[in-house]
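User: Um, what's this?
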Amino acid sequence: MSNSSTSSILKSRSAIVFILFAIIAVLGVWTFIEWGINRVYVPEGYSMRLRYKGPPLPLLPGYNTPESKTGFAKLDENGNILEKGVLQEMLGPGRQFVSPFYWERELVEDIVIEPGEIGIATSKIGKSLPQGEFLVDGELGETEFKGVLRKAFGPGRYRVNDYAYEFKKITTTSVTNGLQIKYAGWVEIPTGYVGVVTNLASNPTTGALKGIQDSVLPPGIYPVNEKEQQIDIVEIGFREKSIKANLKMDANGQLLYDQSGEPMIADDDSGISFPSNDGFPINMDFTAIWGITPAQAPNVIRKFGNVDAVETKVVMPQIESICRNIGSKYGAVDLLVGDSRQEFQAMTSDEFRAVLLEKDITLSYGLVRHIFIPQEIRIPIQQAFVADELTLTRVQEQATAKTEANLREAEQKVELEAATVQVETEKMVAKAIAEGEKTAQETIAETQRIVAGIDREISLLEAKATVMLGEASAKTVQLLEEAKADKFKLAVDAFGSGESYNKWVFASGLPEDIELNLIFAGEGTFWTDLKGFSETMLGKQAQETMKKKP
């Protein structure tokens, strides 16, 4: 191999080694920069806010990128930065790789809203709101204007860019105006109550106008933005209000009574006081059972401010006014007794109900509890009533005595009727027993007569049966004999003669293995004397055969 070839090979190897070392050096530098300088760890519960500041040296690309007027970086469709500023999107927890030469990096803690709190966000960037508006619509990162966001944020964790938004955490806030208390923030409406909503601004999304809303919130928990709404918590249902006169008491706290047994009034102006139409001072107690429904709650807040104001401004003044106006038309006696007392009760209750209904308040009952009449009027009336009651008592006693006499007479009549009924009953029982015994004897005699007739019929039937059985037996024997005779006659007729028949009977009676031997017999021998033997034997054998056959 020549020296030139060897030199070329050595140069090529050197170039390769140099390239490898260069690659390794570049990778090392890149790893050092990326993992040693650019790498940053974002812990849980934090986010990383980035601000693009451009390259550190003038010769590097992007050095002349203009600053953003809004403070936020402006990007094109491909994500290239057109203006320097803060990125709206933040990086979440974990390992992130961001060059500190191009970016300012800052950890931002997440906003945590605990139960019982709400978050109110304020946008610090964007356009100014139009004249007359002070709430910003939209979600975090999507707002267009500067100002307080309409949305209230409930419990949870929120990743909030603090360069763009400021968060304020509040619990329950209240605004007191006289007797009226309005709530916002974390508002809890308990059972038995409703929430009357007051909008501080119109809501173009829902179409709700500014002011008290006609729809109410049912019991529950609500996050309410204090800049948008306030809530009046209104108790629903009925409540009792009584106006009573002050009564005198002794040192032990016991009521004092006058000589007629009525409680004594300590203050003539207490309770509901008015003069009767005949000039006597009257004091009375009155109880109203009144309340509001959920549908009436908004009007109550709109007209009176709260429920307590209804009691002080409407219920109590109307009770006193109505009772005085109607009661002053009656005399003292009319208010104490008779149908006029019931009429007064009905008129006051009806008028009170109508007045409250005009003001969107419901009356369940309006009750006149007690009317205090002056003693100089009450005692004569009570004495007259006592006299009347005594008279009625005497009349009633007389009626009772008369009724008792009638009762005794009726008891005696009952006893007499009971004895009469008992005698008549015994008589009817004896008669029924006698008639029963007579009927029983007649039944027995008739039964015996019927039995005797039946016995006679049975005897006749038995005799007739005996005769018929005898005749049947004789007839049976006759028929059997005739049948036998006919049988022999038919057999003889079939063989042509009696002799032939006898021979057939004889032959039929012979055994199958019989042996016949011919014996010559001449005249004068023994066998000649046997003439007629065959006829005699055959005839007897035929008779025995016929007996065996059925």
Remarks:
- The chain has eight helices and 23 strands.
- Helices lie at 3-38, 297-304, 307-327, 332-336, 339-358, 375-495, 498-509, 533-548.
- The CA atoms of residues 193 and 234 lie 5 Å apart.
